[in-house]
């Protein structure tokens, strides 16, 4: 019997196989109780092109503490889209890392789309 984390990682593995076939930069998301993190990984998976998280000083100051809510996820989504454009990336494959597409994950994705990132 798999525990909750192992089930999520199993779903993530299946998704990453499909994303690898697209040969696009990958926007991955990790969420903890306190923070949410987004990484932009190159198409070949060799290097991280950009990162954004609620653990960054600028975002912590803007949030006044709580980085584990939808408002925080929206800020991270907007920030990762800005950094992606600066790195020259327009279109990405969204890797939700096995998390359900709702709440903070959905808020981050929607904010990144609104900021100009194409999924």
From TrEMBL:
Keywords: Ribonucleoprotein, Ribosomal protein, RNA-binding, rRNA-binding. CDD domains: Ribosomal_L18_L5e. InterPro entries: Ribosomal_L18, Ribosomal_uL18_bac-type, Ribosomal_uL18_bac/plant/anim. Gene3D superfamilies: 3.30.420.100. It holds the Pfam family Ribosomal_L18p. GO terms for biological process: translation. PANTHER family: 39S RIBOSOMAL PROTEIN L18, MITOCHONDRIAL, LARGE RIBOSOMAL SUBUNIT PROTEIN UL18M. This is Large ribosomal subunit protein uL18. It comes from Inhella proteolytica.
